[in-house]
Amino acid sequence: MSQRNVTEIKCSDCGKTATVPFKPTAGKPVYCRECLAKHSTPRSSTEHRGSSGESNEKQAWSRRRIDWK
After folding, report:
1. What's the alpha-carbon Rg for the chain, to the nearest Å?
2. Is the model's pLDDT at 55 over the cut of 70?
3. Three-class SS state of 60
4. Residue 4 covered by a domain
5. What is the three-class DSSP state of 36?
6. How many C-beta atoms surround the C-beta of residue 11 within 10 A?
């Protein structure tokens, strides 16, 4: 079983120490789980994303074509 890379951080909001499963980007805020929930926007249902079906299909097709090269 592979071990996850975790990085210990200091929350940019509350100052608590936490761990994240990625290496933070310099200059960007990083939050603990509780503060991240406060800063995240709630996900809307798919019907609020416009014509998501068609655009998602086109984007997926585009990604597949790039992978074929």
Report:
1. 18
2. no
3. helix
4. yes
5. helix
6. 18
10, 16 Cβ separation under 8 angstroms: yes
Q: 35: domain range?
A: 1-40
Q: Considering the domain boundaries, does residue 34 fall inside one?
A: yes
The sign of the torsion formed by the CA atoms of 17, 23, 29, 34 equals: negative
**Global pTM value:** 0.53
Q: Are 53 and 42 in contact (CB under 8 A)?
A: no
Rounded to whole angstroms, how far apart are CA atoms 56 and 60?
Answer: 6
2 or 15: which leads in pLDDT: 15
What are the phi and psi torsion angles at 30 (to 5°)? Answer: -135, 135
Sign of CA dihedral 64, 45, 28, 26: negative
